Amino acid sequence: MTVFFPFYFLLSSPMQEFLFRSFLFAEMRAAGVRNGWALVLFSALSFSFIHIIYGDWLTLALTFCIGLLWALIYYYIPNLVGVSVFHGVVGIFGVLAGVARNL
Q: Distance between CA 100 and CA 20 in Å, rounded?
């Protein structure tokens, strides 16, 4: 676990935020999507979908909800560092909660 948390916080979370907020928003806008709710919903759905590998509906629901929040924040304040740090912190707590649940 000691290697996982720095990797998750410094690489995985920022990369996910880049892909599902920054890059996706830019590509959708370039394709002509101007509706903010469409950007936010598609971003949250896409983000949630990558978590399907866990095979847990609760995980999908929670990642969709938090994806909505992060997409809304990014839509109004397009700061990739801010949502990446938020993602890293929440994700680490989520991992710790999952590990504790399995003890």
A: 28
The answer to whether the CB of 63 falls within 8 A of the CB of 5 is no
3-class secondary structure, 37:
helix
End-to-end distance of the chain based on CA atoms, in angstroms? Answer: 15
Q: What is the pTM of this model?
A: 0.88
Average pLDDT over residues 7-30: 96
DSSP string, 47-96: HHHGGGGG--HHHHHHHHHHHHHHHHHHHHS--HHHHHHHHHHHHHHHHH
Report which DSSP code applies to 10.
I
